[in-house]
Amino acid sequence: MDFKRTDFPKDFIFGAATSAYQIEGHGFGGAGRTHWDDFAATPGNVVRAEHGGRACDHYHRFAQDLDLMADAGFDAYRFSTSWARVMPDGKTVNAAGLDFYDRLVDAMVDRGLQPWLTLYHWELPSALADLGGWRNRDVAGWFADFTQAILARIGDRVHAVSPINEPWCVSWLSHFEGHHAPGLRDIRATARAMHHVLLAHGTAIQAMRAMGQKNLGGVFNLEWSTAGDDSDAAARYDAIYNRFFLGGVFRKEYPHLVLDGLGPHLPDRWQDDFDVIGTPLDWCGINYYTRKVMAQGSGPWPHLREVDSPLPKTQMGWDVYPQGLQDFLVRTARDYTGDLPLYVTENGMANADVLEDGVVADGSRIAYFDAHLRAVQAAIAAGAPVQGYFAWSLLDNYEWSLGYEKRFGLVHVDFETLTRTPKASFAKFKSMLRPGS
Ligand code: FCB
Prior knowledge:
The chain is an alpha/beta fold. The chain has one domain: TIM Barrel. 40% of the residues lie in helices and 16% in strands. The chain is built from 15 helices and eleven strands. The protein has helices spanning 20-23, 35-40, 58-72, 83-86, 95-110, 126-130, 139-154, 167-175, 187-210, 233-251, 256-262, 274-277, 322-337, 363-381, 424-433; strands at residues 13-17, 76-80, 114-120, 160-164, 217-227, 283-296, 304-307, 342-346, 386-392, 411-413, 420-422. The strands form two sheets. Strands 1, 2, 3, 4, 5, 6, 7, 8 and 9 form a nine-stranded mixed β-sheet that branches. Strands 10-11 form a two-stranded antiparallel ribbon. α13 runs parallel beside α14 (363-381). Beta-D-fucopyranose binds next to loops.
């Protein structure tokens, strides 16, 4: 990973990303209960039933964490705001919550870091989950109110905003596969959540436009789908995972391979919502980690079966497949976004890191970043308008249903003492971004 800034286009930005529930410590500052607290409190959902109550205690240590961002020479910090911190019951403002994000954004600006805000990275207030959460169409209006409350306070300083991190995870992973809160496995709930998450996205974009907020985007997690047989299983997986969300937002249509299964379960008159869902954006963010090999399965729709693949795996068991990032950047520009700036808003790997004598030698993570940054360069060479790259993640953190076991950070966190130790991968970024420092 021996790049120089000049190996990337002029003004290309480098950043690192985190999210609120994964690092802040939700037990602090009067934050309300979230559906992740409920999910984690239910046996069998999360490794060791771990939750985000303390996490990395970023709530109290954010100055130190942002010092690390600045020390590495990053240009931008992608962070998220917790709905339940700002509105503990989902609707009423908690002044201490807004004050926290005000201090946090000031601290970024003080250090010369561009604040890249994600409004929702998964911690739905429990009070709204009680009302049906993402299954309830009213979520779009509640979310717009939350959006306005945040932007009225910090919108003057944030550089870029996206409403919802990874619509696929919010809807499919959480309502069909049941792996994330609220842990449902229900096709009808899934269809509604998939549509409502996009409706909430578009409603929030319109609310921010009306406030004069600039530089608004959407962040999609894409997973490459490789054919494991000669059926259309891989295309079906691609349609569910990737094309449904990009298609809704950028083409105002859903793929027929998804409608085949979900059509009967979508809310009435769903087609009427595309003008809101497809409100024009200023940029598109892509979170990319891996690929899957898919074949025809025997169960009900979507009839999918995952096939083993020979590729090397990360600590998550995910294939290392940088070609997918290159292909997605090129394909997204070609099929959906045209000249709109693209950003890699998350990319990184979990590794079974060991801290020894103050050092974490995470060579495999360095190799992962190296290969994926080369994929970004190849996509740019092929004409994709990629303007920035964010590593996931600044810190080891709460990896959702896998608890604190999976380490994605550039900085090691000891979850007993909360000591931060920059890893070798952090030093690599620093030598690229601040050579000779
Ligand atoms: C992404 C999430 C992020 C983290 C990484 C590993 O899907 O946005 O919070 O869990 O995966």
